[in-house]
Amino acid sequence: MNRKNTIPIIDSCSLDLNNKTTIHIDDLSDYVIKHSNMVFPHKHNFFHFVLFTKGSGDHIIDFNHYKIKPFQIYFMVPGQVHTWNFVGDEGGYVVNFSVDYFQSFLLRTDYLERFSFLQGKIEHLIFELEGPCRAQATNILDEILSAKSSGLSEDYIRTLLLQFLLYVSICSEKEQKDGSNPYNHKIFNSFQQLVEQQFKSTKLPSVYADQLFITPNHLNAICKSYIGQSAGEIIRNRIVLEAKRLLINRNLNITEIANELQFKDNSYFTKFFKKSTDLTPEEFRKQL
């Protein structure tokens, strides 16, 4: 775990620094007991998902609160901040796998981008499996548990995990469809990736539009058609999210956070943050 600069980062899929496994699967109730000391805001550098078969309480991901429901599944990507407040009656499965888990296995290195729930977008983050999908989903996870505990080949376990991801993408109403315009879909995904890479240094939609070889108006139209937000709103929301993540760490003062996000001064950052949240950074931090 790295606490040096910002938010605590869990940097081993097994949550055991002596075990550098690239995939970890566990019974949820056992996992929560074993890692009861993890109930504080933190982030991972690996993919993480949980399928609840029962339970109650709350799970907080990037400052959004979710009530736990049976057969609810949520996915988290590296960098997202979360914590939980479970009642103690939870059951299900938890899976962690490294970013490069499929890298040597799949010809297409960008294959995981087809799964909208592995892109870290709130609108695709969490959903409930419908009745017909539940048995098959849990059967696949049981197979992974059995294969892992039996020491079966890593490639076999990879095929099972990929089968699970494909099956969930079929079952999920949140699955991203290419729709009637694959070009727009590609542009939108490329814009989201650029924002993730550049939001600190590049805050103007026109700069992103130039990189995508389209006009700002065209970019806005594409963004609104997919999630009902303009390109500028998407950029601002990403900056605000990162600011909130940084505000968790009380070792960072507001000026340091403003500098990290490349605002010209503390005052401009405070005005930007308050306009988006109705709170100053200090007021937001007091609520944490």
TrEMBL record:
Domain of life: Bacteria
Residues covered by the HTH araC/xylS-type domain: 189-287
SUPFAM superfamilies: Homeodomain-like (SSF46689), Regulatory protein AraC (SSF51215)
MF annotations from Gene Ontology: DNA-binding transcription factor activity; sequence-specific DNA binding
UniProt keyword list: DNA-binding, Transcription, Transcription regulation
Pfam families: AraC_binding, HTH_18
Keyword Transcription regulation included in the entry's annotation: yes
Name the record gives this protein: AraC-like protein
